Amino acid sequence: MTDNGEIIAQPVIQLRELGLAAAGAAAVRAAARLGLADALGEEPAGAAELARAVNADPDTLQRLLRALACYGVFAEQPDGRYVHTGASRLLREDTPRSLKDMVLWGTEPWTWELWGHLDEAVRTGKAVFPELHGMDFFDHLHAHSPESAAVFDRAMTQSSRLSALALADRLDLGGVGTVVDIAGGQGHVLATLLERNPGLRGTLLDLPEVVSGADARLQPGGALAGRATLLGGDCRREIPVQADVYLLKNILEWDDESTVLTLRNVVRAAAPGSRVIVVENLVDGSPELRFTTAMDLLLLLNVGGRKHTRAGLVSLIEEAGLTRAEVRPVNSYLHLVESVVPERG
Ligand SMILES: C[S@@+](CC[C@H](N)C(=O)[O-])C[C@H]1O[C@@H](n2cnc3c(N)ncnc32)[C@H](O)[C@@H]1O
Question: Any one Gene Ontology biological process term (predicted)?
C-alpha cells in the first residue's frame, strides 16, 4: 500500500519488475566480474571494505549489493554488513559447484544484442545470430570471440558437474566396451563415466578448439588417458567412431535439421544394436520452467534451436531412423531418451 492508501495490485508489481528483469541479470554478471563473492569471506563485511577489495566505488557497490540481496544473492544484516547466501557462494571460483561461468555465459555481451531481436525471431521462427554476424554461432564464437568461447566451455563443464554423477548412476554400462560422447564439451561427463566403469573405453568428439582444452584426466599423461581418445571434428559432417554406446547430451537443441543430420550420422557409423542416449532438459518435464523456457528462447536466437517437448524429441529421433525410443528421468531436470540403431534394411 502507498502512503495515500492506494493499493498497488500484484499484476502491476509483476509487470514492472519483469520489464526491468535485465537489471537482475546485469547485477549478477557485475558481481561475477568484480569477484565480489570471492572477496567476501566467512565474516560479515560492509560495502566499504568490499569496495576496497574489488576496487570499486563504495557507495555504488552498496547499491549493487542491495539490488543483489533482493534476489537472495548475498544478505544484508541488521548492522548493514553483508554475508553469503547459498546463491552467492555459488559465484565463488573456489567452490567445487561454482556456477560463475554459467552466470557469465548467460549474460555475455552477445546475449544482450540478441534479446533485442526476439520479436523478429518470433515472426520469422529463425535464428537472428547468423544474420547479424554473417556466420553461424559456434563458428563466430571460435573465430571472433575466443574469450566468450572459453567462458562457454567452462560453463558447460560447470553445468555437467551438476548432472554427471546422476547420469553415471542412471546409465547402465555394465558389459559395455566403448562409448563416444558426441559434442561432449571438455569431457567432464566422459571422464565421470570412465571413472565409474573401469572396463570402459571412450571417445570425446567435439570441435577441435574445444577438444584441445579437454579435461586433464583425458589428456596425454592424465589418469584416464589410456582409455580415452580425443577427436576434433564436426558431428554434422561425420561421426567416424564405432562404439557400443553413443551419448549426445545437450547438443540436439540446435535446429531440427542439424539434429536429424547428426543422428543419421550416428546411424551410419554405428553397428546395428548400438545404443543411442540423448540427454536433454524437456520443456514439458521441467521443474524449472523459467530457466528452461528462457534457454529455449536463447537457443532460438543464437542457433535457431529449441528445448524440446518429450514427443518432439522422440519424433526427431525416430525420423533419423532410430528405434525403440524410451524416455527416463536422469535427475529432477534432465531426461534421457535411449534408442537403438536398427538392423540395416
Ligand atoms: C551445450 S554444449 C554441451 C556440452 C556437453 N555435451 C555437456 O552436456 O556439457 C554443446 C557442445 O556442442 C559442441 N558443438 C557445437 N557444434 C558442434 C559440431 N558441429 N560438432 C561437434 N561439436 C559441436 C560445442 O562445442 C559444445 O561443446
Answer: methylation
